Amino acid sequence: MAFTMKQMSMIVSTFGVLSFILGVIAENKKPASGTVITGKGIVICKYSSDPTVVLGYLSVAFLALCTAFGYLSLFYPYKGKSVPQAALFRNTGFVVFFNIALGVTGLAAAMLLWPTITEQFHHAHNIHHNLETQCPTAKTGLLGGGAFLSLDSALFWLVALMLADNAREDYFEESDGKGTSSEPIKGSV
């Protein structure tokens, strides 16, 4: 099946928005702390059944899909015409936004994974020998921040796609011989 640039941009947008929504919901559902249950020389932390960990991993998965399709959309041969990567990377704007998209994606993944893994760790290792343990949860705000960076990442992939489209048009104009002639265009002074 051949994709159009519009379809690819819709796929990238959809996955980016889903990652954002799931990250925000995960942040809002995260409990402030667990319930302390004191035993003989131990503290057991009981955490309510919340979907934070699952939603966090789903948000990361949709970010990964957004990134994969964002990257693929830049180099996909639309209408059966492929462009060498060197032609795309000659465009300074494309290079800048491509690198920003990669950087923001990495930062979003880190900010989504860190609290999700930490929360999962707290749920799995809930027996403490320190009697003053307060049953902590993952740091508040990281999932929400990661969700917003995930949305930003999708937007940067879309900007890079628009710049790649401009670079594609420039490449095909040059390779077709249009605009490379030294003869004046008819009707120009």
Automatic annotation (TrEMBL):
Where does the UniProt annotation place the signal sequence?
A: 1-26
Similarity comment: Belongs to the DESIGUAL family.
Q: Quick check: keyword Lipid metabolism in the entry?
A: no
Q: Where in the cell is it found?
A: Endomembrane system
Keywords noted in UniProt: Membrane, Signal, Transmembrane, Transmembrane helix
Give the bilayer topology: Multi-pass membrane protein
User: Cellular component terms, GO, for this chain's entry?
Assistant: endomembrane system
Transmembrane spans:
54-76, 88-114, 142-164
Family matches, as InterPro entries: DEAL/Modifying_wall_lignin1/2, DESIGUAL
Identification of the protein by name: Uncharacterized protein
The main place the protein resides is membrane
